[in-house]
Design goal:
Blueprint: H1 10-17, H2 27-38, H3 43-53, H4 57-66, E1 78-83, H5 86-90, H6 93-104, E2 117-122, E3 134-136, E4 139-141, H7 149-154
Parallel strand pairs: 1-2
Antiparallel strand pairs: 1-3, 3-4
Length: about 180
């Protein structure tokens, strides 16, 4: 993914739209390309896209929110996926997800306040013999336990300790 995580210009969007036919059926691939290039679908991008293709931003947003593939906030620096498939589930996948949520201070589907991590619940990674499995930026980590999580997270941050509610949304800190 070549993500820039900045708002696209009108000319950026026009270049994407030019690759497709002008019918409504092209909306989803256009949105996919915008997200691929810019990391997410910003309000500015949806408004500008609407003016280019003649569909209201509200209608575009309605289509985009129907599909879970689209995101409306910039992605985190690192993506953590916690497998919840059958093999991972019976070997403690739910507890691994709960521990990740606790340590990162976010729920699955959210990004930490500092933008460091996205936490994603995934149906199956496809590595059932290695369960429970967590991926970080696509790299598979096998037979994860709650005790392994701090080391796994520390590989991607220099901070140690738990997120303190009194920090007011500061940097994510990990134990």
């Amino acid at each position: 993914m070549n993500t820039q995580t900045e708002n696209p210009t009108r000319s950026d969007l026009e270049a994407i739209v030019a690759r497709y036919s002008s019918d409504r059926g092209s909306l989803i691939p256009i949105l996919q390309d915008i997200q691929e290039q810019f990391g997410y679908l910003s309000e500015v991008a949806l408004d500008e896209l609407g003016s280019i293709i003649g569909i209201s931003a509200n209608e575009i947003y309605g289509v985009a929110t129907f599909y879970t593939q689209f995101r409306f906030r910039p992605p985190g620096e690192h993506t953590i996926q916690v497998c919840q498939g059958t093999a991972c589930h019976v070997r403690g996948g739910r507890q691994i997800l709960n521990e990740m949520e606790h340590r990162l201070g976010v729920s699955a589907g959210e990004t930490t306040d500092d933008g460091k991590f996205d936490l994603v619940r995934i149906a199956c990674v496809g590595c059932c013999a290695l369960a429970p499995v967590v991926t970080v930026d696509g790299k598979v980590h096998a037979q994860i336990t709650s005790k392994k999580i701090p080391g796994l997270l520390k590989q991607h941050t220099n901070q140690v300790g738990r997120k303190d509610a009194s920090e007011g949304g500061g940097a994510t800190t990990l134990l």
